[in-house]
Design a protein that fits this description.
Alkaline Phosphatase, subunit A, eight-stranded mixed beta sheet, binds 2-acetamido-2-deoxy-beta-D-glucopyranose, glycoprotein, hydrolase, N-sulfoglucosamine sulfohydrolase activity, signal
Length: about 500
């Protein structure tokens, strides 16, 4: 009897020790850093002008993706896809969240922060939230534009540093954490805070009336120095605009350095997955709000302390911001629940993105497509487009192509766009790679070979030698739209009738 009891006790002790050991070895956290409207203006992506030493050193401990894409080129919709793994048309965040725009995700969406908090993971957000409703995107710790000034929580890197420190102070060691730091840099400022310069590059620089950000050493660039992206007109106005953007990129970089320093100081360096990316393309014509390559290509770094095999490597795999939620769920071993959303009431939602963790071990061989879905940016900017980027080919479907492409308020007042308008009005050379008219009026289908035509200028859609490519891509795109419950799946020439069995019924509207 006694021996039996001792055996039971030993068994119990062993079980307790084992669970402690597993708990200890499996301590895993996530730090997700999202920049605002940031692009490839960093040393990581071989821009030799702009100084970004902190991103460079993060890249040395990361896998760097050369083909990362957002599925939607607009702030709130993109952030909703990052935090749900569902495209905008599926989660309901069709356009911007704030003010008159008023978009929100469906109440039933099972978002990343919701799923993590249900598994006792400590969640925090610092910076720009820009999604709703609150019940879908709950965070335990939250300093955002909802209860602070977005300049303070999104651009004041000293304030951000102190908030990260505060988050770690409130954090209990035994729980894992998910901390989301959403910088407002490198967003434009001309529309909202013009007194601080086109990119808020003067905010906190210590000059009269600008205040001071104690931890920021501003770096200035001259218009002659900047590298003008091929999709931006090489004009004095655009160069000055880019020089201001670079100064803001430097502040972002120094802010990232401070956040990573706080992570290290708190002792979480060796058990935290760090992800860096941005929400959409840079705020220049052909960039943000477009599903062209220049509007959807994103920087993306994935740094895992547990996977050092490919540190410093560059991956050519096609990855999407839709992959962030599946990656983080995989990292925490949290399963995705079964539930339905309005777009597809009879079939349970499933994530079409994938976990990126396998890429940390070896280069994936068949990750070669990325999907896009845009409906609006501002509430007035209805221009639904769906796209698929597969291998060399990029297909875009502009559903309402007969309307002029809409321009957002923030881009409109930018020096680059004003200069383009002036030059066009005065009949002067624009130095842009397309005319304003071509930019406004698009064809319904656009097909590009991005290997031979990276700027996407030659539409191959009516070239018979590409008809098989066109048909294959169209079918893959349609399949993804049905799979993700896209209400726009039948437009513009059919209407979706979804009673009994969803199908497209013809409109005979001549399209
Ligand atoms: C930057 O250039 C180096 C050297 O040419 C190359 O190895 C690296 O892959 C490039 N990085 C990216 C992100 O393209
Ligand atoms: C913002 O909300 C958090 C709770 O999420 C609270 O701790 C903090 O004090 C609030 N900040 C302000 C400035 O109201
Ligand atoms: C930035 O935040 C710090 C700490 O809260 C504060 O001392 C400083 O005045 C702020 N700077 C600006 C420009 O608001
Ligand atoms: C960090 O983790 C790696 C890999 O798991 C391990 O080899 C290393 O010893 C750890 N370093 C520290 C400081 O704990
Ligand atoms: C565009 O033209 C207007 C009117 O002539 C002028 O006030 C403005 O400064 C010009 N803007 C740029 C960026 O050239």
């Amino acid at each position: 009897q006694c021996v039996k009891t001792i055996m039971r006790l030993l068994e119990l002790v062993f079980l307790i020790l084992a669970s402690c050991w597993i708990g200890e070895s499996k301590r895993r956290n996530v730090l997700l850093i999202i920049a605002d409207d940031a692009g490839f203006e960093t040393e990581v992506y071989n821009n030799s002008v702009v100084h970004t030493p902190h991103l460079r050193s993060l890249a040395q401990r990361s896998l760097v993706f050369n083909n990362a894409f957002t599925s939607v080129s607009s702030c709130s919709p993109s952030r909703s896809t990052i935090l749900t793994g569902l495209p905008q048309h599926q989660n309901g965040m069709y356009g911007l969240h704030q003010g008159v725009h008023n978009f929100n995700s469906f109440d039933g969406v099972q978002s990343l922060p919701l799923l993590l908090s249900q598994t006792n993971i400590h969640t925090g957000i610092i910076g720009k939230k820009h999604v709703g409703p609150g019940s879908v995107y709950p965070f335990d710790f939250s300093y955002t534009e909802e209860n602070s000034s977005v300049l303070q929580v999104g651009r004041n890197i000293t304030r951000i540093k102190l908030l990260v420190r505060k988050f770690f102070k409130t954090h209990k060691e035994e729980r894992p954490f998910f901390l989301y730091v959403a910088f407002h840099d490198t967003h434009r400022c001309g529309h909202s805070q013009p007194q601080y310069g086109a990119f808020c590059e003067k905010f906190g620089n210590g000059e009269m009336g600008m205040g001071r950000i104690p931890d920021w050493t501003p770096v200035y660039y001259s218009p002659e120095q900047v590298k003008v992206p091929p999709f931006v007109a090489d004009t004095p106005a655009a160069r000055a605009d880019l020089a201001a953007q670079y100064t803001t990129v430097s502040r972002l970089d120094q802010g990232i350095g401070l956040v990573l320093q706080e992570l290290r100081a708190a002792g979480y360096d060796n058990d935290t997955l760090v992800i860096y990316s941005s929400d959409n393309g840079i705020p220049f014509p052909n960039g943000r709000t477009n599903l062209y390559h220049s509007g959807i290509a994103e920087p993306m770094l994935l740094s895992s302390p547990e996977h050092r095999e490919r540190w410093g490597d560059t991956s050519q795999a096609y990855v999407s911001l839709l992959d962030i939620t599946p990656t983080i769920l995989d990292w925490f071993s949290v399963p995705y629940p079964s539930y339905n959303l309005p777009g597809n009431p009879t079939t349970p939602v499933h994530l079409t993105g994938r976990s990126l963790l396998p890429a940390l071990v070896s280069e994936p061989i068949s990750w070669n497509s990325a999907y896009g879905s845009q409906s609006l940016h501002e509430v007035t900017m209805y221009y639904p487009t769906r796209s698929i980027h597969q291998g060399a080919f990029h297909l875009l479907h502009n559903l309402h192509y007969l309307m002029p492409f809409p321009i957002d308020q923030d881009l409109y007042v930018s020096p680059t766009f004003q200069d383009l308008l002036n030059r066009t009005r005065l009949g002067q050379p624009t130095h842009w790679f397309k005319s304003l008219k071509e930019y406004y009026y698009r064809e319904r289908w656009e097909l590009y070979d991005t290997r031979t035509d990276p700027l996407e200028t030659k539409n191959l859609v009516s070239d018979p030698s590409y008809s098989t490519v066109l048909e294959t891509l169209r079918q893959s795109l349609q399949k993804w739209q049905w799979e993700t419950g896209d209400p726009w799946v039948c437009g513009p020439d059919y209407v979706l009738e979804d009673k009994l069995e969803p199908r497209c019924r013809p409109l005979y509207n001549g399209l």
